[in-house]
Amino acid sequence: MDNKLVPVTQPYLPPLDEFLPYLEQIWERKWVTNNGPFHEMLEAQLCEYLGVEHLSLFSNGTLALITALQAMKITGEVITTPFSFVATTHALHWNGITPVFADIDPDTMNIDPTKIEAAITPKTTAILPVHVYGNPCAVEEIERIADNYGLRVLYDAAHAFGVKRHGRSVLEFGDMSVLSFHGTKVFNTFEGGAIICRDAKTKRRIDHLKNFGFVDEVTVVGPGINGKMNEVQAAFGLLQLKHIDHILAERARINERYRLAFQNVKGLRMLDVPPYCTRNYSYVPLRIEREFPVSRDALYDEMRAQKIAARRYFYPLISEFPTYRGLPSASQANLPVATEISRQVLCLPIFPGLAMRTQDKIIDIVLAAAGLQQYAS
């Protein structure tokens, strides 16, 4: 293995000669943004691939989250998880909404439905769960709670591209779902994102909001934002979509090698996804539990010393950042499971192009920390 830092994930880059014809068409048309031909093609092809009817592309996932909350007219308090990337809660903050943190399930690491109900107050208007690591939330339980209390549900599905539950896309649950197409994601458009909604009328409203509120040249119907995806991003997405099955197969192969290597190591725990859920292997979260000979942070430091950029996703918890730690729901006493897991998880590198010898090196670092012999690939 060379001396280069190995990241947790990196984008799949198809051959340049496949991308150049797209760029040439953009150059010839001179239509670079504002719902260009590639933008419209990508929306249609993503709907077909993901099995959804209404999808609106965005320049990034955070603007998609902010706009989804605007489109749903959410106010007051929203119950969410502290175990996520901070953009989940920042989107609430930008909309003047108060996040209320609920603890997570110790097995799925998603928001625990049994904790949601206790967090509801007269100010609660919605639930914002996250399909963490692409592992679907307990959608039926969340739906039951939302129906009982008249709450809206917006899923942060940043990690859940292509994931299905009982053969149905997880993006179809709730009132809306939001995807991220950031360069670190399974499917990417450099930067990018999308909102999946339930009907054509809602999509029109979202499309107006992401374009400053314009309906036509002289009509603005609301205080929208500039969230449009440009043609270069959309073209790259179209090319990525041609390779997505290869990308997913490669990630599955890498994940399985990790699983086989660690399956009998005491104190290590990998994410188990129910057999009725498809996976996209967006991350490899390895939990370093108390029985393991060294701490998560000691293993993290050793990885870094050996040029492996393992990441502690998600540490610290969102609730521990200065912006949010003053909230009553942010106390560690309210979030014991999330607090413990945030100190256990170490995400290992997984991406198409990860060399087998590099993966063997990563595995050997973990096994050496456990006092075991090197991995036989």
* Low-pLDDT residue spans: none
How would you describe the shape? Answer: globular
Topology as a string of helices (H) and strands (E): HHEHEHEHEHEEEEEHEEHEEHHEH
Indicate the proportion of strand residues: 5-15%
Which sequence of strands runs across the widest sheet? 1-9-8-5-4-2-3
CATH H-tier superfamily of the largest domain = Type I PLP-dependent aspartate aminotransferase-like (Major domain)
Give helix % range: 25-40%
Task: Give a structural overview.
Helix 1 packs antiparallel against helix 8, helix 2 runs parallel beside helix 8 (231-262) and helix 8 packs across helix 11 (356-369). The protein has helices at residues 16-29, 37-50, 61-71, 87-94, 113-119, 139-149, 200-209, 231-262, 296-305, 336-342, 356-369; strands spanning 54-58, 77-80, 98-101, 124-128, 152-156, 164-165, 168-169, 176-180, 193-197, 214-216, 219-220, 268-270, 284-288, 345-348. The strands form 4 sheets. A 7-stranded mixed sheet has the order 1-9-8-5-4-2-3, with helices on both faces. A 3-stranded antiparallel sheet has the order 12-13-14, covered by helices on one side. The model has no long low-confidence stretch (mean pLDDT 96). The chain starts with 15 loop residues before the first helix and ends in an 8-residue tail after the last helix. It folds into 2 domains: 16-239, Type I PLP-dependent aspartate aminotransferase-like (Major domain) (Aspartate Aminotransferase, domain 2); 244-369, Aspartate Aminotransferase, domain 1. With 377 residues, it is α/β, with parallel strands linked by helices. The chain contains 11 helices and 14 strands. It holds the Pfam family DegT_DnrJ_EryC1. The modification N6-(pyridoxal phosphate)lysine is found at residue 185. Keywords: Aminotransferase, Pyridoxal phosphate, Transferase.
